[in-house]
Amino acid sequence: MDKKSIIILAAGQGTRMKSELPKVLHKISGKPMLYYSIKEALKLSDDITVVLYHQFEKVKKEMEKYFSNINFVIQDHQNFPGTGGAVMNIVPKYSKVLVLNGDMPLIQASELEKFDLDATIVMSVLELQSADGYGRVIIENGNVKKIVEQKDASIDELAITTANAGIYQFETKFLLENLPKLNNNNNQKEYYITDLVEMAIKEGKILKPIIVNEENFKGVNSKVELADAEVIHQNRIKKEFLKAGVIMRLPDTIYIEEEVQIEGETIIENGVSLLGTSKIINSHIKTNSVIENSLIENSDVGPMARIRPDSKIINTHIGNFVETKKAELRGVKAGHLSYLGDCFIDEGTNIGCGTITCNYDGVNKHQTIIGKNVFVGSDTQFVAPVIIQDDVLIGAGATVTGDIKKGALFVTRAKAKVLDGYFYKHFENKKKS
Ligand code: UD1
Ligand code: CA
Predict the structure, then answer these.
(1) 0.90 exceeded by the pTM?
(2) Quick one: 223-410 is in which CATH superfamily?
(3) CATH 3.90.550.10 in the chain, residues?
(4) Is the CB of 101 under 6 A from ligand 1?
(5) What's the CATH superfamily of 5-211?
(6) What gap in Å lies between CA 250 and CA 271, rounded to an integer?
(7) What ligand has the least distance to the C-alpha of 124?
């Protein structure tokens, strides 16, 4: 493949999204749409320019979290609005330049390689049931004649179902020579990159249309299309894991973000969300559990458990309604209804139902450390910071405010009082008054 430059258009506001957030920052599988265009572009080129305008600082800052080796330029949007205006004043390094839209999060490098043809312009065409929202490709005698935008189309043109997918490869020389010739004589008063197609044809240049599929080239302009694109993206993620041997119960109900890793003999039940950079190894994640930025290894979790960021759950059983956060559990059982935050709990320890690590004093967070083979009775509160050594027995209903030494029994209970027949006396008194 020839070396080529890539320009990604991401300056538009995205009014059809009806949102304050710039369109390309809306997320799919946990990452902004623009992230995917850049990620795929980097597989093909070392000269990538992203064109920004609306809220450019916000978009740039967000992308710099993930990428360091790309160029950002700001479009002269006031004087040259539109997709044509967006590519003006860029000097690509290589003799060919691929132009991508930042609102096409399903694009894959393998599909972009198909543009590697010898022509002045290689353009992408979608054959659709309805081309609503897209520019229409006007074909005469089997040849592309021009592209007409939806907002400029006649009723006859609107009926055309051959759409411009919006990705092009240009010979850099042609692009630089012809951009200054674009005008904004259209209903949107914008400079259209699509007008270059008609110009190339009139100059007798070679134009090669390639037919592409919507699975890869879907443009996202509205929240409906965002949701549709995410379904396609999710299916891709899940299919890869299924092929690698992960068992999924009702995969359509499972949500897995872009960076999640799953390894070994793992079962994911229905309704599970795996978020951020979570890694699941040889584990069973049961119905409706949520796992975020955490490691789960040789463990079972849920149903309905919430594993919050920076938890490490290893050789452990986590049951229903257990919430963890920054919790490292190694060889532990926490079967029911607990909050385990900012803690380290060691092998053989059993956490009784209703246990709470009180990690927050209203200002700072503190740690609870629990050693090996500790038996924590139900309804225990650990008021952190506390350290519980190995082999400790804690009676149900305890409030632990200090450290406990190895081998001890710890109980905090008021002496029980039983007053025979007091029930009747109590209500007798009430009646009199
Ligand atoms: C564009 C095409 C249309 C095609 C469709 C495919 C034009 C004129 N139309 O229409 O033929 O069917 O894509 O999805 O090109 N952008 C800028 N600067 C601007 C305007 C837009 O950078 O001034 C960026 C946007 O951020 C977006 C991309 O260009 O990433 C496409 O813009 P958008 O407004 O979505 O174009 P469409 O109307 O979808
Ligand atoms: Ca679009």
Answers:
(1) yes
(2) Hexapeptide repeat proteins (2.160.10.10)
(3) 5-211
(4) yes
(5) Spore Coat Polysaccharide Biosynthesis Protein SpsA; Chain A (3.90.550.10)
(6) 8
(7) 1
C-alpha–C-alpha distance, residues 256 and 64, integer Å: 23
Chain region(s) in the chain for CATH 2.160.10.10: 223-410
Query: How many residues can be counted in the chain?
Result: 433
For a ligand 1 pocket test, name from 15, 54, 83 the mutation site with the most ligand atoms within 8 angstroms of its C-beta.
83
Distances (CA, A) of 418 to 307, 414, 421: 42, 12, 9
E strand intervals along 77-226: 96-101, 121-127, 136-140, 143-148, 162-171, 207-212
Of all protein residues, the one whose alpha carbon is nearest to atom 39 of ligand 1 is: 134
- Residue-by-residue pLDDT tens, the chain, 433 positions: 678 999 999 998 889 999 999 999 999 999 999 999 999 999 999 999 999 999 999 999 999 999 999 999 999 999 999 999 999 999 999 999 999 999 999 999 999 999 999 999 999 999 999 999 999 999 988 889 999 999 999 999 999 999 999 999 999 999 999 999 999 999 999 999 999 999 999 999 999 999 999 999 999 999 999 999 999 999 999 999 999 999 999 999 999 999 999 999 999 999 999 999 999 999 999 999 999 999 999 999 999 999 999 999 999 999 999 999 999 999 999 999 999 999 999 999 999 999 999 999 999 999 999 999 999 999 999 999 999 999 999 999 999 999 999 999 999 988 999 999 999 999 998 887 6
First to last CA, the chain: 96
- Tokens 């109900």 found at: 253
C-beta 105 within 6 A of ligand 1 = no
Closest listed ligand to the CA of 12: 1
